[in-house]
Design a protein that fits this description.
Layout (H helix, E strand, L loop, with lengths): L8 H4 L12 H18 L7 E4 L7 H6 L4 E4 L3 H9 L4 E2 L5 H9 L4 E6 L9 H11 E8 L11
Parallel strand pairs: 1-2, 1-4, 2-3, 4-5
Length: 155
Protein backbone atom coordinates (compact mmCIF):
# COMPACT_ATOMS: atom_id res chain seq x y z
CA UNK A 1 0.00 0.00 0.00
CA UNK A 2 1.19 3.50 -0.74
CA UNK A 3 -0.46 6.80 0.08
CA UNK A 4 -1.00 9.41 -2.62
CA UNK A 5 0.70 12.24 -0.73
CA UNK A 6 4.41 12.56 -1.34
CA UNK A 7 7.12 15.12 -1.88
CA UNK A 8 7.86 15.55 -5.59
CA UNK A 9 10.99 13.64 -6.58
CA UNK A 10 12.63 16.65 -8.17
CA UNK A 11 12.19 18.58 -4.92
CA UNK A 12 13.92 15.86 -2.88
CA UNK A 13 16.57 14.79 -5.37
CA UNK A 14 17.67 18.03 -6.96
CA UNK A 15 21.09 19.32 -8.05
CA UNK A 16 21.85 20.39 -4.47
CA UNK A 17 21.35 16.90 -3.01
CA UNK A 18 23.92 16.63 -0.24
CA UNK A 19 23.93 13.01 0.99
CA UNK A 20 27.02 11.10 -0.17
CA UNK A 21 27.15 7.45 0.91
CA UNK A 22 30.97 7.41 0.80
CA UNK A 23 31.16 9.75 3.80
CA UNK A 24 30.49 6.76 6.07
CA UNK A 25 33.59 4.59 6.42
CA UNK A 26 31.62 1.86 8.19
CA UNK A 27 29.09 1.78 5.32
CA UNK A 28 31.97 1.57 2.82
CA UNK A 29 33.48 -1.37 4.73
CA UNK A 30 30.07 -3.05 4.74
CA UNK A 31 29.64 -2.42 0.99
CA UNK A 32 33.06 -3.93 0.26
CA UNK A 33 32.29 -7.03 2.33
CA UNK A 34 28.90 -7.34 0.64
CA UNK A 35 30.56 -7.17 -2.79
CA UNK A 36 32.97 -9.94 -1.88
CA UNK A 37 30.09 -12.05 -0.57
CA UNK A 38 28.01 -11.60 -3.73
CA UNK A 39 30.94 -12.36 -6.05
CA UNK A 40 31.75 -15.46 -4.02
CA UNK A 41 28.14 -16.63 -3.89
CA UNK A 42 27.18 -16.02 -7.52
CA UNK A 43 30.52 -16.05 -9.32
CA UNK A 44 30.14 -12.63 -10.95
CA UNK A 45 32.97 -11.79 -13.35
CA UNK A 46 33.79 -9.64 -16.39
CA UNK A 47 30.86 -11.26 -18.26
CA UNK A 48 28.33 -10.20 -15.62
CA UNK A 49 26.47 -6.92 -15.12
CA UNK A 50 25.67 -5.30 -11.79
CA UNK A 51 23.18 -2.43 -11.85
CA UNK A 52 22.43 -0.31 -8.82
CA UNK A 53 19.34 1.87 -8.71
CA UNK A 54 19.91 5.03 -6.65
CA UNK A 55 23.65 4.36 -6.78
CA UNK A 56 24.56 7.66 -5.12
CA UNK A 57 28.28 8.41 -5.43
CA UNK A 58 29.33 4.92 -6.55
CA UNK A 59 30.10 3.82 -2.98
CA UNK A 60 29.10 0.20 -3.72
CA UNK A 61 29.70 -0.19 -7.43
CA UNK A 62 33.34 0.87 -7.03
CA UNK A 63 34.05 -2.45 -5.30
CA UNK A 64 32.48 -4.51 -8.08
CA UNK A 65 34.46 -2.47 -10.60
CA UNK A 66 37.69 -3.17 -8.67
CA UNK A 67 36.92 -6.89 -9.19
CA UNK A 68 36.44 -6.30 -12.96
CA UNK A 69 32.68 -6.82 -12.79
CA UNK A 70 30.93 -4.41 -15.21
CA UNK A 71 28.62 -1.98 -13.44
CA UNK A 72 25.98 0.62 -14.17
CA UNK A 73 24.73 3.16 -11.69
CA UNK A 74 21.31 4.78 -12.05
CA UNK A 75 21.24 7.97 -10.00
CA UNK A 76 18.87 10.94 -10.38
CA UNK A 77 20.92 13.49 -8.44
CA UNK A 78 23.52 15.45 -10.39
CA UNK A 79 25.83 16.04 -7.41
CA UNK A 80 26.30 12.38 -6.51
CA UNK A 81 26.20 11.09 -10.11
CA UNK A 82 29.04 13.47 -10.96
CA UNK A 83 31.20 12.04 -8.16
CA UNK A 84 30.47 8.47 -9.28
CA UNK A 85 31.41 9.30 -12.87
CA UNK A 86 34.63 10.93 -11.64
CA UNK A 87 35.42 7.60 -9.91
CA UNK A 88 35.04 5.87 -13.27
CA UNK A 89 31.67 4.33 -12.45
CA UNK A 90 29.40 4.29 -15.51
CA UNK A 91 26.39 6.23 -14.25
CA UNK A 92 23.21 7.45 -15.88
CA UNK A 93 21.59 10.47 -14.25
CA UNK A 94 17.99 9.34 -14.44
CA UNK A 95 14.99 8.37 -12.33
CA UNK A 96 14.32 4.64 -12.59
CA UNK A 97 11.07 3.14 -13.87
CA UNK A 98 9.54 1.08 -16.68
CA UNK A 99 10.47 3.46 -19.50
CA UNK A 100 14.12 3.60 -18.46
CA UNK A 101 14.29 -0.19 -17.93
CA UNK A 102 12.83 -0.73 -21.41
CA UNK A 103 15.48 1.61 -22.85
CA UNK A 104 18.18 -0.47 -21.17
CA UNK A 105 16.67 -3.76 -22.35
CA UNK A 106 16.46 -2.42 -25.92
CA UNK A 107 20.24 -1.88 -25.68
CA UNK A 108 20.63 -5.47 -24.36
CA UNK A 109 21.56 -4.15 -20.90
CA UNK A 110 20.10 -6.24 -18.09
CA UNK A 111 21.40 -7.05 -14.64
CA UNK A 112 22.75 -10.30 -13.30
CA UNK A 113 22.55 -8.50 -9.97
CA UNK A 114 20.12 -5.61 -9.50
CA UNK A 115 20.66 -3.56 -6.36
CA UNK A 116 18.57 -0.98 -4.60
CA UNK A 117 19.41 0.33 -1.14
CA UNK A 118 17.18 2.70 0.80
CA UNK A 119 15.32 3.66 -2.36
CA UNK A 120 11.85 2.09 -2.31
CA UNK A 121 10.58 4.45 0.39
CA UNK A 122 11.45 7.43 -1.81
CA UNK A 123 9.72 6.21 -4.99
CA UNK A 124 6.62 8.20 -6.00
CA UNK A 125 5.20 5.43 -8.24
CA UNK A 126 6.07 2.12 -6.61
CA UNK A 127 4.28 0.04 -9.26
CA UNK A 128 6.24 1.65 -12.10
CA UNK A 129 9.47 1.20 -10.17
CA UNK A 130 8.94 -2.49 -9.36
CA UNK A 131 7.76 -3.27 -12.89
CA UNK A 132 10.93 -1.59 -14.15
CA UNK A 133 12.97 -3.84 -11.88
CA UNK A 134 11.40 -6.91 -13.48
CA UNK A 135 12.46 -5.61 -16.91
CA UNK A 136 15.98 -4.62 -15.84
CA UNK A 137 16.76 -7.97 -14.23
CA UNK A 138 18.00 -10.77 -16.50
CA UNK A 139 16.14 -14.05 -16.49
CA UNK A 140 17.72 -15.93 -13.59
CA UNK A 141 19.27 -12.74 -12.17
CA UNK A 142 19.28 -11.67 -8.54
CA UNK A 143 17.75 -8.65 -6.80
CA UNK A 144 19.23 -7.50 -3.51
CA UNK A 145 19.06 -4.62 -1.15
CA UNK A 146 22.14 -4.74 1.05
CA UNK A 147 21.02 -6.08 4.39
CA UNK A 148 22.19 -3.91 7.24
CA UNK A 149 24.83 -5.60 9.39
CA UNK A 150 23.77 -6.96 12.74
CA UNK A 151 25.40 -5.86 16.01
CA UNK A 152 28.38 -8.14 15.31
CA UNK A 153 28.83 -6.72 11.80
CA UNK A 154 27.44 -9.81 10.02
CA UNK A 155 25.20 -9.59 6.96
Amino acid sequence: MQVDEYQKSDALFNNDYAYFSSFSTTWLAHAKKYTETMIGRFGFNESSKVIEIASNDGYLLQYFKEKNVPVLGVEPTASTAKVAIEKGIETVQQFFGVAFAKDLAAKCIQADLLLGNNVLAHVPDINDFVQGMQIALKQGGNYHGIPAPDAAGRQ
